[in-house]
Design goal:
Helix content: 25-40%
CATH topology of the largest domain: Rossmann fold
Radius of gyration: 28 Å
Shape: extended
Mean pLDDT: 83
Distance between the termini: 28 Å
Oligomer: single chain
Length: 377
């Protein structure tokens, strides 16, 4: 999932059918109200959720192309990082949040982006305002502090469309509590709420899917125009001016150094040490062979831990571990066969194993062709 997320820049737009079902759970006011999507994408989801209403739609989108598309359908769009956007507290009636599904890596530890986005934006929602949170079901518990302290009348449903099931998406509805209601929450009731939320995730098979006919309705309160301000750097302008910066031209020699290439035969025959250096540096990666033997070769280093056990005279066992790096060669043939050359079968990164005798083994892995056939190296 994380690889797919990175490939799509963590962008998982809500399926239109799911947005229509969510819309049936909401009762938007006849008067105007302000709604916001901090991860707006192209703006389609927020438009679907607030269709046939006089809502003023606000959006934030990091990607320039999607922000341009969103600006065509939303009333106001800020192109930039959501965490650099500020809005007065309690200024929106509806918060629709479908954040990136990944980790944030920081100096004080890694935290889920779902939790960070919710903690940054829930304050924009006025008391009595409605939260619509779409995230993977197993990530709801990461958001428990904000959800159980600041929101009441919560309901959770699984999303059932094929694309939603693929990423285990769920939707949570909630109504923001007033400050008086928050002050009345006891530690015991908060602990019970945490346990109930954990049970919802643990008993995923018992969680109902989002129905076509809602079993409840969330009344979205009216609100006036909102105001958002962006305090970050204009990303497009920075990107355009970056190549004119003397500092960047100095740094890019290291960060964007061209690949090293060598052509021709060496002056002297290479010994085993030379070959090992070439392998580990990636200079022997590439395309080789012809016909049935046409293949791509890729070398990589894998950390190994050698484990030694010594029995002392008093009967105690002393365990010693030593880290080292081993090489692994993967061969991908044109007809779909895959071969792996490594020290031992089942070798995994950071796996604790007994010292190797130095002999290499070739392990064959199944590879499926487009027509369903299985080829073996």
């Amino acid at each position: 999932m994380r690889l797919a997320s990175a490939a799509k820049l963590s962008y998982f737009p809500l399926v239109t059918a799911e947005a229509e079902r969510i819309r049936r759970f909401l009762q938007l006011p006849p008067d105007e109200c302000s709604v916001v999507d901090p991860c707006a994408g192209c703006g389609t989801a927020l438009c679907d959720i607030t269709a046939s209403s006089g809502a003023r739609r606000y959006g934030i989108e990091l990607d320039a192309y999607r922000a341009e598309k969103a600006a065509q359908v939303l009333d106001e769009v800020i192109q930039g990082d959501c965490f650099d956007v500020h809005a007065p507290v309690e200024s929106f009636s509806l918060l629709y949040l479908n954040p990136p599904y990944q980790f944030e890596i920081g100096e004080s530890g890694n935290r889920r982006m779902e939790e960070l986005f919710l903690a940054h934006t829930y304050r924009w929602l006025k008391p009595g305002g409605v939260l619509v949170l779409v995230i993977p079901l197993d990530r709801l518990y990461d958001c428990r502090e904000v959800l159980n302290v600041h929101f009441k009348d919560k309901a959770v449903f699984r999303l059932t469309e094929a694309e939603s099931v693929k990423y285990k998406q769920a939707v949570l509805f909630g109504v923001r509590r007033t400050r008086t209601e928050i002050n009345k929450i006891s530690d015991e009731s908060l602990g019970q709420a945490h346990r109930r939320l954990y049970q919802v995730i643990y008993r995923e098979q018992d969680l109902p899917g989002l129905p076509n006919v809602p079993d409840r309705t969330y009344l979205v309160p009216p609100s006036g125009p909102a105001r958002m301000s962006y305090r970050g750097m204009p990303l497009d302008v920075v990107e355009d001016l970056l190549h004119e910066s003397p500092a960047w031209r100095q740094a890019m020699r290291i960060t964007h150094a061209p690949s090293t290439e060598f052509r021709g035969r060496p002056l002297l025959p290479l010994n085993q040490g030379h070959l090992a250096i070439l392998c580990t540096s990636g200079l022997l990666n590439g395309r080789f062979g012809r016909g049935r033997d046409l293949h791509l070769a890729h070398w990589q280093s894998a950390k190994q831990i050698d484990r030694h056990e010594d029995t002392q005279e008093d009967g105690t066992t002393e365990i010693r571990e030593r880290e080292r790096f081993s090489q692994r060669l993967t061969l991908l043939y044109a007809d779909g066969r895959v071969a792996l050359l490594s020290e031992g079968k089942g070798e995994q990164k950071d796996e604790k194993r007994t010292p190797s005798d130095g002999a290499a083994e070739v392990h064959e892995e199944d590879s499926r062709h487009g027509d369903g056939r299985v080829g073996v190296a």
